């Protein structure tokens, strides 16, 4: 992997984790200096970051951003995604309330817990790994919960409840969107 590729992977990982632009710039400048020093000493970029660049970026981001900030953001984003998916269910079924079954609840809780643990440790899973996680963790949990508890609804979630689920994550999404420029600015 080239220095530019390593810097790009680290930048995307840090931006995904919600580090502000100033922190990302500082971290990139520091990492770039380390990589240049290593190159001048005849060492490869992998000697600085190790074999797993994503794990390196994740560990540096964890050191830069305290755990409670990461957990709050991740929890809010999970509620946001769950709320959006439930909103689609409301729209597709054209109903003001959605039945929440034990299997459905276990499915989303299982995927949520494993995703949070993996992403807090390693960074973004990506779309393919997320789907694989849903199949390997979510589906067995769903089937087991349905077998144990049946498919009778535990409760009905009204549309207003679904909208409330999205609010904490929406606040983070808006804050992060405002912090990022829409297009790169060219300095003269």
Distance between the termini: 31 Å
Rounded radius of gyration (Å): 20 Å
For the biggest β-sheet, the strand order reads 1-2
User: From the structure provided, what is the oligomeric state, counting identical versus distinct chains?
Assistant: single chain
Q: Please, how many helices?
A: 8
β content, as a range? 5-15%
Order of helices and strands: HHHHHEHHEH
Portion of residues in helices?
over 70%
- The backbone outline, from C-alpha atoms, is elongated
Strand count? 2
What can you see in these coordinates?
This protein has 188 residues and is mainly α. The chain is 77% helix and 6% strand. The protein has helices at residues 3-16, 21-40, 45-49, 53-64, 67-93, 102-122, 126-149, 159-179, and strands at residues 97-101, 153-158. The chain has a two-stranded antiparallel sheet with strand order 1-2. The longest helix has 27 residues, at 67-93. The model has no long low-confidence stretch (mean pLDDT 83).
What structural keywords apply?
elongated, about 190 residues, about 75% helix, mainly alpha
Condensed summary:
This protein is mainly α and 188 residues long. The chain is built from eight helices and two strands.
Layout of SSEs?
Elements: H1 3-16, H2 21-40, H3 45-49, H4 53-64, H5 67-93, E1 97-101, H6 102-122, H7 126-149, E2 153-158, H8 159-179
Antiparallel strand pairs: 1-2
Helix pairs in contact: 1-2, 1-4, 5-6, 5-8, 6-7
């Amino acid at each position: 992997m080239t220095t530019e590729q390593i810097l790009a992977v680290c930048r995307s990982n840090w931006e995904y984790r919600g580090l502000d632009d100033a922190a990302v710039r500082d971290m990139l400048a520091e990492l770039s200096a380390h990589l240049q020093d290593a190159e001048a000493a005849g060492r490869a970029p992998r000697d600085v970051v190790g074999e797993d660049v994503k794990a390196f970026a994740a560990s540096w981001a964890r050191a830069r951003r305290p755990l409670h900030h990461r957990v709050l953001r991740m929890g809010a984003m999970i509620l946001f995604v769950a709320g959006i998916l439930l909103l689609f269910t409301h729209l597709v079924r054209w109903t003001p309330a959605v039945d929440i079954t034990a299997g459905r609840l276990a499915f989303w809780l299982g995927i949520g817990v494993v995703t949070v643990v993996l992403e807090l440790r390693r960074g973004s899973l990506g779309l393919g790994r997320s789907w694989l996680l849903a199949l390997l963790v979510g589906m067995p949990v769903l089937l087991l919960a349905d077998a144990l508890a049946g498919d009778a609804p535990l409760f009905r979630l009204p549309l207003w409840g679904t909208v409330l689920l999205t609010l904490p994550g929406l606040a983070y999404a808006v804050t992060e969107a405002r912090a990022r420029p829409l297009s790169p600015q060219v300095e003269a």
